[in-house]
Amino acid sequence: MTSPAQENARMLASILQIGEDHAAEHLNRTILVTAAKDTASTRWAAEIIALLERTVRITIDTDVVTRPHLELIVGGVKHRSHCRRLYAEIDAARATIGFEATVRGRGEAPALFAATAACTVAAATLSALIDDPALPTVKFPLTLDFAHLGIPATALEREINFTGSVLIGAGAVAHGFLRALRNVHARGILPIVDPKAVGEGVLNRCLYLTPDDVGLNKAEVLAARAQPDFPQLQITSAVETFTSFTKRNGPTATAIVTVDSRRARRSIQSELPGRVLDASTTDVRGVVVHSNLQPNPHACLSCIYRHVADEHAREQSIADGLGIPLETVKSGFISKDVAVMIARRHSQINPEAITGMAFDSLFRQLCAEQALATPEGRQVLAPFAFVSSLAGNLLVIELLRCAAGLSNTNYWSVDPWGAPKRQTRILRRRVPECEFCSRPEVDEVAKELWGAGDRWW
Question: What's the mean per-residue pLDDT of the chain?
Fold first, then answer.
């Protein structure tokens, strides 16, 4: 099994092009967090700590660590150490982090904006702690202007009824989505659909999970862990694929997509949900948010995640490494018979332990254990917690924009090591050769199912 610390070390080693042991030493450094006593500062500091403590060592107690490597000062408060210092401030209009103290502006940031800004601060803090030019660039002082998020105050107060919606995937982005959704007036019923079980390695970025959850069904655990945060929203679970869920329940009005596979995204779009809200990460380098509403004259999920050469190369690498046919990998999940086949090639594997697991997940685990040596290994590396959480926060923001009728774009690319900018929102057009929306019958069926594209909320 791959531990959370190993997952983090593998990612950092890949970025810095160093050994995993050396990367682990970088992540074994300690950050002292010093927060002002006002409510806004203490709450924001707690959000930042929740993200950073899954990656590096965090303390708020100078008696425990007398010589931290970095001090993060949240709000207008005096420093408590003599090490390098970062200062983070937040008000109603913006959040800023830099090496010099700034004066806080007026007002208190909405909770959703503060949670989003916590991801930005976590990225900047990790950059300052590691202090290596090979990391993605952070330009200090870094300011997140909340106007760039594209949500007026009235949209934040809107009540959202999730009945008819489905959260697809129960991984790190789904955890980030639900944690961000705590700051929204949510009601109704929201099923979580995921056929997989919790692996040890995901604990570095799935913030609702604890070590006791390893081996349990991801959808069931996430629903149970998140439910106390939502007094008016009933969260249910379905341990199955979205395709089988749709066969049982019929077309989905709103598909909230957080899966980590291009092929799975195309499969979800082929079920023709009335609306798609999707967020994805590219290891630690990027976050992409996409939305569409049927009938849809613009790019669909299959246009955004069309089949590419690298995808085929990764699937072929997985097939070669596991010793199974390429067509078997394309099925997505390991059956009982395939598990036995893989165990014949890899004697250390218990077939029962991998039955039902995604091929990508097993491939990632074997790469981490160095049981497989492959140039495709980097393509399945897991991101840090703040990257997945940022994707989840931006997905909630896109949901609110759609609910308020403000979304005139369908694609938003965001640098996790910078601040989200409105200029990177664009309207993507259809791909003429798209395997889904290029079919002439799609628009007719969409009109029959979903009418003129009325809003669901």
Answer: 91
Residue type, 317: S
Q: What is the H or E stretch that residue 352 is in? A: helix 351-354
Q: State yes or no: pLDDT of 332 exceeds 50.
A: yes
pLDDT (tens digit per residue) in 378-395: 445 678 999 999 999 999
On whether the CB atoms of residues 415 and 286 are closer than 8 A, the answer is: yes
Torsion angles phi and psi, residue 272, rounded to 5: 55, 55
**How many angstroms separate the first and last alpha carbons of the chain?**
42
Distance CA(317)–CA(326), nearest Å, equals: 9
Q: Assign 177 a pLDDT band (cuts: 50, 70, 90).
A: very high
d(CA 131, CA 126): 8
Beta strands in 194-253 (DSSP E): 233-238
Confidence grade of residue 350 (pLDDT, cut at 50, 70, 90): confident
Angle (CA) 139-143-144 rounded to 5° is: 125
Which single residue is written with the structure tokens 């006593």? 37
Amino acid making up residue 88: A
Kindly indicate the confidence band of residue 457, based on its pLDDT and cuts at 50, 70 and 90: low
Give the list of residues 6+ apart from residue 250 with CB closer than 8 angstroms, or none.
Answer: none
CA distances from 427 to 304, 307, 316 (A): 11, 20, 33
Strands 275-282 and 286-293 turn out to be: antiparallel
| 333 Rama class: left (phi>0) / alpha (psi -120 to 50) / beta | beta
The Cα 268–Cα 259 span in angstroms is 10
Note the pTM of the prediction, 2 decimals.
Answer: 0.88
CA–CA separation, 150 and 401 (whole Å):
7
Answer whether 78's CB lies under 8 Å from 43's CB.
no
Name the residue with tokens 């394309």. Answer: 330
The C-alpha angle with vertex 104 and arms to 101 and 105, in degrees rounded to 5, equals: 145
Distance CA 56, CA 60 (A): 13
What's the average model confidence in pLDDT over 142-157? 93
Residue partners of 205: CB distance under 8 A and separation at least 6: 7, 54, 172, 175, 382, 383, 384, 385, 387, 388, 389
Using the predicted structure, report yes or no on whether residue 102 has a pLDDT greater than 60.
Answer: yes
Task: Provide the 10 A C-beta neighbour count for residue 452.
Answer: 7
The helix (H) or strand (E) run that includes residue 90 is strand 84-90
Rounded Cα gap, residues 41 and 48, in angstroms: 10
315 pLDDT above the threshold of 50: yes
User: Rounded distance, CA 38 to CA 43, Å?
Assistant: 9
Residue 371: pLDDT over 50: no
